Amino acid sequence: MQLQAKFDFGFNSEPFLAKVGKVSDPDVRELTPVSTTGGRPLCLSFGEKNDDVPNSVCVGRQFSYLAEGDIVRIDPNAGEMRVVFRTNSIHNVIFMTERCNCRCIMCVQPPQNVDDSWRNRENLELIAALPKDLKTICVTGGEPTLNKEAFLNVVKALAEHLPDTDVHILSNARTFNDVPFVKAYADATNNRFTIGVPLHGVEPQAHDFIARSQGAFNQTINGLLNLAANKRQVEIRVVVHRYTAEHLADIAEFVVKNLPFVVHVAFMGMEPVGYAKSNFENLHVPESVWWGGAAQACKLLDAVGIPVSIYNVPICLLREDLRLYSRQSISDWKRTFLPICETCKAKNDCCGLFESFAGLPNIGLKAK
């Protein structure tokens, strides 16, 4: 699914957000600005440009999926349009920043040292335009908490505007090492907020090697403990690759003994983009290598009542006893199935593959 492209909008303006109105013509989408910075109404055409319609822009049929209530970001000066919210998706995100205080060896969003503070105002405008009955949304980056004030403004706006929405925040939790910041976060949010935190090992050396940041482990663990002390939900995420595959049971045991308050643990297949793609040959291991460790880990977590899942791994690549933990975890806009999957009886329950696996070595899919 294509989410962004370049077009000639025929006018100059600061970037602005616009919402898709009621769809009465399958070949046309009318946009109304929702930004405080202005913008102008636009008419997107999937066929030929209609010169009789004011502000008509031909964008091509790759965006014909746009529905009423969807929100796009228009940057006329750069000639860019990007879809930032889709009403028919459960995989919407609020992207805080491209910056990060880690450089994880399998990071799918390699950090960029850029000034993207413009996102702070725009994210608040986006939240204000979201539907009140939204089921779930994710806050991510980079590391979304680096600008503490901007992060707190966003979570406060989410809690106030969308009190019944599940909010999932992806963070390395290092910033939550700061006790006053954790308290401010707790005061600003409700029990529908969960922070998903990566754990790469059970000791500082292993975790910090993968995070490529000395001191990351201690800050992350302190952050998790601080969040628990302030009665905020946390989830542990373990990306499975060469350096973690043999330690899944150890990580599960560490969680049970030291982090028994977590609400969920997810063992995750790698998404081969960013650093994970450039390091793929070094990091990737066949799923059969970690079946045993995953089984031990899942049984241990099950035994103490901590929910556990396996993300991003097609069902056919899991051993039979692991398939009950499989989840449809891959975002709809980057999920694909191969021709062999079309006849598989498990397709409707399978997460499929990341589109970014195209061109990489065969990973051994086989239809059931």
Please, could you describe this protein's structure?
By secondary structure, this protein is of the alpha/beta class. The chain folds into 2 domains: 82 residues, OB fold (Dihydrolipoamide Acetyltransferase, E2P), CATH 2.40.50; 265 residues, Aldolase class I (TIM Barrel, Alpha-Beta Barrel), CATH 3.20.20. It has 9 helices and 16 strands. Strands 1-7-6-2-3-4-5 form a 7-stranded mixed beta sheet, with helices on one face. Strand 3 and strand 4 form a beta hairpin. Helix 1 packs parallel to helix 2, helix 2 packs parallel to helix 3 and helix 6 packs parallel to helix 9. The radius of gyration is 22 Å and the shape is globular. The model has no long low-confidence stretch (mean pLDDT 94).
Principal-axes geometry comes out as globular
User: How many separate domains?
Assistant: 2
Can you count the beta strands?
Answer: 16
Low-confidence stretches: none
Order of helices and strands: EEEEEEEEHEHEHEHHEHEHHHEEE
The CATH topology annotation of the largest domain reads as TIM Barrel
CATH architectural designation of the largest domain:
Alpha-Beta Barrel
Write out the CATH superfamily name of the largest domain.
Aldolase class I
Helix content: 25-40%
Strand order of the largest sheet: 1-7-6-2-3-4-5
Overall mean pLDDT score? 94
Main pleated-sheet profile: 7 strands, mixed
Distance between the termini: 27 Å
Quaternary organization: single chain
Secondary-structure-based class equals alpha/beta
CATH class of the largest domain: Alpha Beta
